[in-house]
Structure prediction request, 420 residues.
Amino acid sequence: MIRVLQTKTILLGVTGSIAAYKAATLASQLTQAGARVDVVMTREATQFIGALTFEALTHRYVATDVMALLPDSQIAHVAMAHRADLFLIAPATAHLLAKLAHGLADDAVSATALDTRAPLVIAPAMETGMWEHPATQANVATLVARGAVIVEPGIGQLASGASGRGRLADLDDIVDTVRAVLGRAGDLAQRKIVVTAGGTQEPLDPVRVLANRSSGKMGFALAAGARDRGARVTLIAGATSLRVPRGVEFVAAPTAREMRDAVLGAIGDADALVMAAAVADFRPAHTAEQKIKKEHAERLTLELVRNPDILQEVASRLPPADRRALLVIGFAAETQDLLAHARAKLKAKGLDLIVANPVPQSFGADIEAATLLTRDGAAMELSPLPKEELAEKVLDFVSAKLARHSLNENSTMARDTGSG
Ligand code: C5P
Prediction:
């Protein structure tokens, strides 16, 4: 379940492109993530994929005709237009874009688009020539000027067999855009959150690294969750094979030293730093310029030196935790004496919150058990939960703390100016 999608009604408009079949996966993903999905289709779309497919996936009525009525005699597309929290049109044909730009309403999708006041997200799909045509580009510009968000088509194989721009965007990018648009006025709007993720890799030679088993899933879930609550997010990641979430600023920082530089560069105007990365404590003292060859020796001894502790450097550059504007959150991954080590780290690294989790079982897993420990001594033990939900708990803490900061600042200002 994705928090920003729960309790939301997404209206999915499907038009007559071969990519219409992909809209079934979108409907399914959004439904499984917790959204109510209403589907409205053009006649042409029903030639590519049946309304029944969407009804079966969403368990809801699907409108394919402007004249269609719901069982209680309401006009289907009007009722759908009014109850939508967001209108996603995917795929949108060149013809549909032209209709929307000019306010035409002669099919169920364009009529619904004219009537709804929900934010509009459009994922076009068409042949390259149609996409690049000045008429289409002008229509897109008109829609953007009116507030629509376009998920640009990608490059790849098209219906004609040719390859070029026009392919429906990646479905994950479409879902990311829906999440970001739904959450743009969320409780972290106007905030900047810096998140680190994944394990760092310290080079031994041009082809080998000293690494750890961190997958990056926790940090990526935090970054996506903060974006879904309206925050401006900088995601600084070590080694990871995960897809970069759309709508966050991404910085690749493969080594601990690169990550330190990226973090120190990003926190200047940030409200919170969440260090979910598994930073290597040590790195090879020397990185060989050429590949180390086994023929040269029977044994190889590596000399390691300490890496900078990023959180400690942050703490040393800022005022003490109770007097600074930046919230700092760390993770403690331990194989033994979890809580004792976590409490010691909370203190030594000047943190506001530490997330204690047992390793190695949580590395790479989707579900994680954790205990949240705060600076004032409170502890919240969480039974195993998906990383997305753990991320929301951490962000709940960030949001509540930042709201309290702002409240305190306002009341201090009010006192200082003699008002209130
Ligand atoms: O000391 P330890 O590595 O167990 O602390 C874990 C926390 O400190 C994590 O939040 C991790 O991102 C951060 N850390 C760091 N710099 C290091 C090592 C860990 O900021 N060199």
Q: What stands out?
A: Residues 318 and 324 are 7 Å apart (CA to CA). The chain has a mean pLDDT of 94. DSSP finds 14 helices and 20 strands in the chain.
